[in-house]
Amino acid sequence: MTRIENVLLRWGGKVMLLAIGVWVAAILGIFAGAWRLRWPWVLYFIATVIITALVIQWTNAVRQRYIREAPLPRFLQRKLRETYPHLSTRDCELVERGLRQFFMACLRSNQQFVAMPSKAVDALWHEFILHTQAYKLWCQNALGFFLHHTPAEALGHKARHNDGLRRCWYWVCKEESIDPKAPSRLPLLFALDAKFAIAGGFSYVPDCSDIARKSDAGGSGGDSYC
Is residue 12 pLDDT above 70, yes or no? Predict the structure, then answer.
């Protein structure tokens, strides 16, 4: 990142809040009769709205590029292979891509809860969060807030978690130009556990009709989720 982008990620939000705070104080002052509305205040409001919108758009673009391109700590792949020795270097790179997809979904969800759908990616994420300073810096640059770890789960009886999984599904599908409502394939993050035969992992299918047919016939949909 450039120096300007570093400053933007660190101070952009605070500057916007300050500008908006000044405008709120001005409005309260007008209603309290402390001063009269003047054209400079109107121009300030218009400028604040335009600049705020531009800064938000620019900041999001910088964060997205950071998530896609910024290097993750190199030891993470080694730690992942200690957990899953059957994974190759290429496999670990794909799991790392899955983690980037998850962070992207978190960014685009505007701090709404996003659930982790993959055991393999969850292991990588958990290892990352153990290294507090590196993880804290990554979160600050990538998201603008500290993202706490929540274990991977499949669809179940927890409404909040189910909403988080659907939110994750929507954004990772968008990331891969997949129609979330009529997917032709699984996005990477949802395909990794089955692809690498992760013990206790979650296997998803893009089309629920096959599971539904087996269930209607009195059979079982197996351990697949959709």
Answer: no
